[in-house]
Amino acid sequence: MPHREHAPAGAPCWTDLWTSDVAGSRRFYSELFGWEAAEPSEEFGGYFMFLRDGVPVAGGMGPMGDMPAGDVWTIYLATPDIATAATTAEGAGASLFMQPEPVADLGSQLQMADPQGATVGAWQEGTFPGFTVLDEPGAPSWCELHTRDFQGSLEFYRTVFGWETQMVGDTDEFRYAVVLAEAGSEEQVGGIMDAGAWLPEGVDAVWSIYFLVEDAQVAADRVVELGGSVIDPPAETPYGVLATVADPAGAVFKLRTAPNE
Predict the structure, then answer these.
(1) Which of 186, 160, 195, 190 lies closest to 178 in space, CA to CA?
(2) Which of 147, 155, 79 is nearest to 116 (CA)?
(3) Of 90, 95, 166, 181, nearest to 134 (Cα)?
(4) Is 253:245 a contact under the CB 8 Å cutoff?
(5) Which CATH number is associated with domain 1-143+215-261?
(6) Which of 34, 65, 114, 115 has the most C-beta neighbours closer than 10 Å?
(7) With b meaning 16 or more CB within 10 Å and e meaning fewer, what string describes 54-75?
(8) How far is CA 52 from CA 131, 133, 243, in A?
């Protein structure tokens, strides 16, 4: 589904970059994906949008006051009731970094660490639904959670965000569930992987964002040319060619080339 007007409840609906190098990041992603980096908004503390063909695909911001930037991409999940989501999340073991906060008439946001330590946001849309273009070159393609506590994470997100999930693998080698747009739907909006066997000791669970590219190898090479790094080189999988890379400031994201049909 390349285009949508609104994200289903519980689906990833937005992503933004918290970067220590605003100017460098604006240049890097514009040259890598062909995005336009809109001017920072004074009203919103220097927050800015990355645009693809004039349509917002991601956001970005620098350090907040005395708080240094974490150089991370954050994923936001759609919720119809952010106040209830915040209360339910705390009750289910999450730590809120902020209480629900309105962003003018655009919507309301919050950020938290889930019980396994993964940072994730929630967004209740007002006039702004989040990204509306998916699975096109330079647009978000997939979001997934890697966790040590697969069942615990499933229960948390089902409780807080109403996830409907379907197992696609349930062995110790590959335990993975996809998140469905709604019960009985075939539309997949995200994933969750049991990463307990390979997440390094001391590393929390983590959400990842994939951006679609026409050629993951070419894009990975371009990342390096622009001063970034390749963490996991492009590899063929049943889901396409996937690679893990980092921008020059160290923010990690993933590249995906869709499989040939």
Answers:
(1) 190
(2) 147
(3) 181
(4) yes
(5) 3.10.180.10
(6) 114
(7) eebbbbbbbeeeeeebbbbbbb
(8) 10, 9, 21
Beta bridge partners of 120: 112
Q: Where are the domains of the chain?
A: 1-143+215-261
| Sequence letter at residue 13 | C
Indicate left, alpha or beta for 113 from its phi (over 0: left) and psi (-120 to 50: alpha).
beta
Structural contact between residues 50 and 57, judged by C-beta atoms closer than 8 angstroms: yes
What is the token pair recorded at 59?
Answer: 């956001």
All residues at 6 or more sequence positions from 48 whose CB lies less than 8 Å from its CB, including other chains? 26, 37, 38, 39, 40, 41, 59, 60, 61
Which mean pLDDT values do the consecutive 10-residue runs of the chain (261 residues) have?
89 98 98 98 94 98 90 98 98 96 97 98 98 97 97 98 96 95 92 92 94 98 98 96 98 95 62
Q: Compute CA 101 distance to the chain's CA centroid, rounded to the nearest angstrom.
A: 20
Q: Exposed, middle or buried: residue 151 (CB in 10 Å: 0-12, 13-18, 19+)?
A: exposed
Q: Give DSSP secondary structure letters for 153-220.
A: HHHHHHHHH--EEEEEEESSS-EEEEEESSTT---EEEEEEE-TTTSPTTPPPEEEEEEE-S-HHHHH
> Six-digit token pair at 88?
């339910």
* Intra-chain end-to-end CA distance of the chain, in Å: 16
The rounded distance, in Å, linking the Cα atoms of 65 and 175 is: 41
